[in-house]
Design a protein that fits this description.
Bound molecules: guanosine-5'-monophosphate
Largest sheet: 6 strands, mixed
CATH class: Alpha Beta
Distance between the termini: 8 Å
Strand order of the largest sheet: 4-3-7-8-9-10
Strand content: 25-35%
Shape: globular
Radius of gyration: 16 Å
CATH architecture: 3-Layer(aba) Sandwich
Helix content: 25-40%
Length: 194
């Protein structure tokens, strides 16, 4: 998605060869117009799938997921990273090793929002090693529902998450695919440049 690539070039900060900071439009301050365009793009990319719900993870997946849900007219569920006093019954959980925080978190979703006949689109902000997406997929499968696809805002294609998820047979679509962050420069996979 050209507008996203342009924004990454203009506003993204390369924090090292594996980490990109995009807190001026996605991870802290949020650009609603860009999120809206992303929602339309996800809706277009997964138009062939019969999606009934979207599942994401708090907090940075929520904005793009809600915009996709708006376009697809389906509800959006977000997995919680912290235990909630009110989220107690019928909990589905999975462990995620966080690439950025270097710690393992238990994430949870109430099973009452996932039904066995649901066809779920998983959305997240970044794809690095695929831990978050795999944990969300496990929760979907534990609920007896199916994963219709995985939509990612920024895939770091030089890390192994995309390969891992595609090898497992998931349909993965990313709005921007970064091939390298070496020398402080963002390079995109050339086939993503329209
Ligand atoms: P994975 O689970 O695929 O290893 O990593 C994806 C998760 O880690 C995302 O949910 C995102 O929060 C975080 N993440 C991974 N790489 C980056 C990065 O380069 N920048 C930012 N801001 N977050 C990242």
């Amino acid at each position: 998605m050209k507008a996203l690539e342009q924004r990454i070039i203009e506003a993204g900060k390369v924090l090292g060869p594996t980490v990109l900071k995009v807190d001026s439009f996605l991870n802290h301050q949020i650009d609603p117009q860009l999120m809206y365009e992303m929602g339309k793009e996800f809706s277009y990319l997964f138009r062939e799938e019969k999606i009934t719900k979207i599942l994401t993870i708090e907090s940075s997946g929520i904005a793009p997921a809600v915009m996709a849900g708006l376009q697809m007219n389906v509800p959006v569920i977000f997995a919680r990273k912290r235990k909630s006093l009110t989220l107690t019954d019928n909990l589905l959980t999975a462990h995620v090793y966080s690439f950025t925080k270097k710690e393992t978190n238990e994430i949870s979703v109430s099973g009452s929002f996932l039904n066995h006949d649901d066809s779920i689109l998983i959305i997240d902000d970044f794809l690095a090693n695929g831990e978050a997406a795999l944990a969300l997929a496990k929760i979907v499968e534990d609920a007896g529902a199916s994963v219709a696809g995985i939509g990612i805002v920024i895939e770091k294609a030089f890390q192994n998450g995309g390969k891992k998820l595609r090898e497992k047979g998931f349909k993965v679509e990313s709005l921007a695919r970064i091939s390298s962050l070496e020398n402080g420069q963002v390079e995109f996979l050339s086939n993503e440049l329209e």
